[in-house]
Design goal:
Helix content: 40-55%
Largest sheet: 6 strands, antiparallel
Shape: elongated
Oligomer: single chain
Radius of gyration: 46 Å
Strand content: 15-25%
Number of helices: 17
Structural class: alpha+beta
Distance between the termini: 23 Å
Strand order of the largest sheet: 2-1-4-5-6-7
Length: about 575
């Protein structure tokens, strides 16, 4: 529901604040006063395009703000959440639009910038505008099936949900099928390649980390002579075997002998003796380990050649499959899984193909049931709309609900045909109207005037008001070319819809205006040589005067017009 509409420097409006409420809200005023400006401002909030001619002359920018409430169970909440827009605790939605002479427009929803397209999608859940404006959902054939489904009620809703569930499942299966279903040549090519690679890797019989251990062993064997010589020198320096030169162990023994003489006289350097003994023991152990290592050095040229051949084979695999043996083994595991998949893909394809066929049959069966429910609902809706139109002075009109379908060999079986299917079923629905006797029914957008469209929508909304999700309906020019008893009927229907939906109506008819819960007068005045639109909320006597003016009373509002106006307001 639209709670507030604030307009500043928009067209002829310098500044205006309108507060709307539940029920029937009407806008009245002389022709050319600016009622269409108010509707244009709302259209801008609903994703309409901003234009420079909307900016008041002499101003740099025009701004429009709207405050809406969103019901707890509204589908709009999901769309808002997907856009990252949060509702306040009071469930309000504040939409702001700015049109600048610089050509830069700004649109925000609860402070978050949005695109024109996003705002248009949000707007479709908030307001339906019916008249000669862009937000006429009745002129969008793709929305007609939604109206019919609303009318079909719970049975249709349950079937539509089943159709949607089968459709989603079919889409998932077909996507999986597409991924699995490589051409036979492509599948065979991949299988041959992977099997060759697996055999090439398996033939080398790799062990995890083998390349690192072999590289180390290779370095040791290649340097065996140098290692032996250096270990021998190290052993001699510690043990003192060569040329009678004492080694480290002999020198430590001599140092200990000298220190023993010192300790007989003074035991102060006693700690040094323990350190020398420890060093002597460490040197003995070190020399032993060096000797054992030296004597165990293998100078086997045959083993070296064997390792080099092995490393060469591993290097060939590295050039193709990985920088290390572990990476090569990981790759081998991966292609092993691919080989298994390719070998089993035929079985999977066969299973998925069977499930696709079954799902198509189920989808076709439920789609056919949904079509039957829709057709039954369409006949009842046609009769009721025609009845409503007769009351709205369009008794010669013919309203039809046209069903069409598209054959598709890849579709779903319905009866003897294979039909293209969407998430909503196999049906394409469009409302047709003949407003004049002898003319065949045609699409609404091609043959109906703004007033006729508004009355057709009024007829539909009178029937669907309880189930339609859109909370605010705006009717513009609904009274074009009518008066008398028909005008009273239109007023009664608008008021009735107002019991369950917010209705905003631009009207020239007192029969409609007198039934309003909230009444605004739109006028024009010239100040300082410039025209501007004035918006006034009417109450009490001011409202009586406006009704009297609409009745055709003279400027002085004679007593007869005033009396008649009071009577109409009392009855309304």
């Amino acid at each position: 529901m639209l709670l507030e509409l604030y307009i500043k420097d928009y067209a002829l409006v310098e500044e205006a604040m309108l507060e709307f409420g539940p029920g029937l809200n009407v806008l009245t005023g002389e022709t050319g006063a600016g009622k269409s400006i108010i509707i244009g401002a709302v259209t801008l909030l609903l994703g309409g395009r901003g234009a420079l001619d909307q900016i008041r002359t002499g101003c740099e920018e025009a701004t429009v703000h709207g405050v809406f409430t969103v019901p707890e169970d509204a589908s709009l909440r999901t769309g808002l959440a997907n856009c990252g827009i949060e509702l306040g605790e009071d469930n309000t939605l504040i939409i702001s639009c700015l049109v600048s002479r610089s050509g830069r427009s700004q649109r925000r929803v609860n402070g978050r910038p949005v695109t024109q397209g996003m705002l248009a999608e949000i707007g479709e859940y908030l307001v339906d505008i019916h008249g000669q404006h862009e937000h006429q959902t009745l002129l969008k054939p793709q929305r007609h099936i939604d109206y019919l489904d609303y009318f079909a009620g719970e049975e249709g809703a349950l079937l539509k949900e089943q159709v949607n569930a089968y459709y989603r499942r079919l889409s998932e299966l077909e996507e999986n099928f597409k991924k699995l279903r490589l051409s036979e040549r492509e599948r065979a090519r991949k299988l041959d390649l992977f099997e060759f690679q697996a055999q090439e890797i398996d033939a080398v019989r790799l062990l995890p980390g083998e390349d690192l251990s072999l590289a180390h062993e290779h370095d040791v064997l290649a340097s065996a002579g140098e290692l032996y010589e250096r270990c021998s020198v190290a052993y001699s320096l510690i043990h003192g075997e060569d040329h009678g030169i004492p080694g480290a162990i002999d020198r430590l023994a001599s140092a200990l002998e000298e220190l023993e003489h010192v300790l007989r006289i003074d035991d102060t350097p006693g700690g040094a003796k323990e350190l020398l003994q420890t060093a002597q023991a460490a040197c003995e152990e070190a020399s032993r380990e060096i000797r054992v290592y030296r004597d165990g050095i293998d100078q086997d040229p045959g083993r070296l050649a064997e390792i080099e051949a092995r490393l060469s084979a591993i290097q060939r695999l590295k050039r193709k499959y990985g920088d290390t043996v572990d990476e090569i083994l990981d790759y081998r595991q991966a292609i092993g899984e691919e080989i298994t998949k390719l070998e089993s893909s035929e079985r999977e394809i066969s299973a998925i193909s069977a499930e696709i066929a079954k799902t198509r049959v189920d989808l076709g069966r439920v789609s056919e049931k949904l079509r039957d429910v829709r057709m039954q609902a369409a006949e009842i809706l046609r009769e009721r709309v025609c009845s409503e139109l007769e009351e709205l002075a369009m008794g010669s009109s013919v309203f039809e609900v046209d069903f069409s379908e598209r054959e598709d060999p890849e579709g779903v079986p319905v009866g003897e045909k294979m039909l293209a299917v969407k998430a909503g079923g196999v049906d394409t629905v469009e409302f047709l109207l003949s407003a004049n006797p002898g003319e065949p029914p045609k699409p609404l957008a091609k043959i109906a005037s703004g007033g006729e469209i508004s009355r057709v929508m009024l007829a539909l909304k009178s029937i669907l008001a309880q189930v339609d999700e859109v909370g605010t309906l705006i009717f513009d020019e609904i009274d074009a070319g009518i008066g008398g008893r028909t005008a009273l009927v239109i007023g009664e229907k608008l008021a009735a819809i107002g019991n369950v939906r917010q209705v905003i109506c631009v009207t020239h008819l007192p029969q409609i205006a007198c039934m309003a819960d909230i009444h605004y007068s739109i006028g024009k005045e010239v100040k300082d040589g410039r025209a501007r639109t004035i918006v006034t909320k009417l109450q009490d006597l001011d409202r009586v005067k406006e009704i009297a003016r609409m009745l055709g009373g003279d400027p002085e509002l004679n007593a007869t017009s005033m009396k008649h106006a009071r009577e109409m307001l009392r009855i309304g």
